[in-house]
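Duplicate of #3305? Posting structure anyway:
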């Protein structure tokens, strides 16, 4: 439950009234809408947010240490991944080995890393479910992540298509699929 009064009190206690924050995001309608909402909500508690819209190429290099020093200046950003339905695909970006690559927050947690490895090896679906739920709880408890939205993901099904699903779960090369019959 949002608590703007409590947030204002914490900001005052920290002496951060009027603090200016830069929020970077890809210049797409859904991301810009989310950024504008974040900006308004934070203004309500006394924080000033400058939204910096970016083209995709430069944006996706922001957190990469291999691309220079820009990662040192990141304050806040809106990021979205789209991936295969298996939760290992979405959770792999936050393991310690991804710090400086896709783990832009440079967050590291040994339990999370152990659970990630266990999730890859586990074949029991109920146990995998519990593993990935626990991983989400760990991330949520850090305060480093705020989950804003996830757009609808369309899935199609037909018996007339012979799929060529890649070993990693991707449905790449859809143009090469063969129609049955």
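Output from current build:
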């Amino acid at each position: 439950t949002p608590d703007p009064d409590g947030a204002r009190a914490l900001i005052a206690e920290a002496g951060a009234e009027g603090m200016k924050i830069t929020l970077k995001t890809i210049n797409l309608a859904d991301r810009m809408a989310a950024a504008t909402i974040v900006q308004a909500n934070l203004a309500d508690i006394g924080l000033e947010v400058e939204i910096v819209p970016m083209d995709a190429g430069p944006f996706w290099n922001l957190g990469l240490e291999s691309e220079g020093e820009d990662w040192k200046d990141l304050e806040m950003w809106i990021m979205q991944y789209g991936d295969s339905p298996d939760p290992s695909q979405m959770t792999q970006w936050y393991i310690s080995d991804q710090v400086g690559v896709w783990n832009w927050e440079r967050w590291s947690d040994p339990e999370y890393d152990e659970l990630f490895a266990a999730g890859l090896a586990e074949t029991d679906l109920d146990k995998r479910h519990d593993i990935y739920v626990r991983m989400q709880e760990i991330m949520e408890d850090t305060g480093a992540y705020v989950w804003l939205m996830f757009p609808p993901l369309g899935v199609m099904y037909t018996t007339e298509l012979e799929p060529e699903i890649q070993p990693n779960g991707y449905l790449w090369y859809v143009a090469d699929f063969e129609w049955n019959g």
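Confirmed duplicate; merging threads. The CA atoms of residues 164 and 176 lie 8 Å apart. The first strand starts at residue 20 and ends at 26.
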